[in-house]
């Protein structure tokens, strides 16, 4: 993602996550309003209330398919990274199948299990990430980040709004809303998530741009990994990349499991099934098929770079449409009487 942002915003790429989070915050407030108005019902349940079961079923299949498509391409990129850094002689199928099995295991316990797992990993992962990026950034040059406005102020603002999809995962709050006990927890979790994500995005992007001239930053593969490889403190400390890869893989495993969980959850909500677990394995198999579609790693990366821009339309569009419909056409039974 740092490379893609450099291609889009030039030296002002670090501003894109700041602008994008403003758009994502608007989307979250739409989700929060719908959640409060409909007793924390999921987006698909609200759609079924407005437009009937057939539409709810269709939307469930659609969003499950989008989750699985997104998940499949992330799987492929993850596997390519592991092969190029740690296991060059391992078949890609072995890496993909191993990760999918782990994701099924993590997702099977539901959101609480995923949350507890990430609570264990995050302190370690965050510490390693901050230390690695701080040491990498200390070797950067401030003039690499100039001119400050990149391709211009308005172009940077336009690009930032276009890349609101950086935070497309915030739409997951629309599907897990029934799992929150109180509305105040829902709002606190959403706003904290956006603020924390934006800080990490901006910090990583600034470090990446400090370490590499913009022409190089727009072309290099596996950006943050390359930044970590630059770390060298005399004879005392160098080659921290194996530790970084291990932590990154651990966090990615949970993130991928959340994506698989989202696909199973939306499918279950769409067909009004009582449990999402029976759909984890078949959806995982479909994801493996998607992961093998790109013939080369570069094709997977290019498609994924476009995908997260396009996928924000349905994930952000549905909440906006539901809010508009609720204001213009929907009347609760009490209001009708």
UniProtKB/TrEMBL annotation:
GO biological-process terms attached to the record: spore germination
Subcellular location: Membrane
One cellular component term from this protein's GO annotations in UniProt: membrane
Keywords: Germination, Membrane, Transmembrane, Transmembrane helix, Transport
Stretches that traverse the bilayer: 12-31, 43-72, 92-111, 118-140, 160-180, 189-208, 245-267, 279-298, 304-325
Coiled-coil features, chain-numbered ranges: none
InterPro entries attached to this UniProt entry: Spore_GerAB
Signal sequence range: none
Bilayer disposition of the protein: Multi-pass membrane protein
NCBIfam families according to UniProt: 2A0309
Protein family membership: Belongs to the amino acid-polyamine-organocation (APC) superfamily. Spore germination protein (SGP) (TC 2.A.3.9) family.
Name of the molecule in the record: Endospore germination permease
Species of origin: Heliomicrobium gestii (Heliobacterium gestii)
């Amino acid at each position: 993602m740092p490379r893609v942002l450099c291609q889009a915003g030039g030296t002002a790429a670090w501003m894109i996550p700041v602008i994008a989070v403003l758009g994502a915050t608007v989307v979250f407030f739409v989700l929060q309003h719908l959640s409060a108005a409909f007793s924390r019902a999921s987006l698909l349940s609200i759609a079924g209330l407005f437009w009937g079961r057939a539409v709810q079923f269709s939307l469930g299949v659609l969003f499950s398919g989008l989750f699985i498509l997104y998940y499949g391409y992330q799987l492929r990129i993850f596997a390519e990274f592991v092969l190029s850094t740690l296991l060059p002689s391992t078949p890609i199928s072995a890496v993909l199948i191993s990760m999918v099995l782990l994701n099924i295991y993590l997702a099977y316990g539901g959101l609480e299990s995923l949350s507890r797992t990430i609570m264990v990993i995050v302190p370690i992962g965050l510490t390693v990430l901050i230390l690695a990026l701080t040491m990498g950034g200390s070797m950067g040059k401030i003039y690499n980040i100039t001119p400050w406005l990149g391709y211009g102020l308005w172009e940077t603002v336009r690009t930032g709004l276009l890349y609101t999809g950086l935070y497309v995962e915030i739409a997951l709050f629309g599907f897990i809303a029934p799992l929150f006990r109180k509305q105040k927890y829902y709002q606190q979790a959403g706003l904290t998530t956006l603020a924390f994500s934006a800080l990490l995005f901006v910090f990583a992007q600034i470090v990446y741009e400090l370490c590499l001239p913009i022409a190089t930053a727009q072309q290099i593969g596996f950006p943050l990994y390359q930044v970590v490889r630059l770390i060298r403190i005399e004879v005392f400390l160098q080659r921290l990349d194996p530790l970084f890869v291990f932590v990154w893989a651990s966090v990615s495993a949970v993130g991928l499991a959340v994506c698989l969980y989202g696909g199973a959850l939306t499918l279950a909500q769409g067909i009004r099934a009582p449990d999402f677990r029976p759909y984890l394995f078949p959806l995982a198999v479909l994801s493996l098929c998607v992961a093998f579609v790109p013939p080369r790693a570069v094709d997977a990366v290019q498609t994924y770079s476009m995908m997260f821009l396009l996928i924000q339309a349905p994930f952000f569009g549905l909440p906006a449409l539901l809010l508009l419909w609720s204001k213009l056409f929907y009347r609760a039974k009490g209001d009708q009487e």
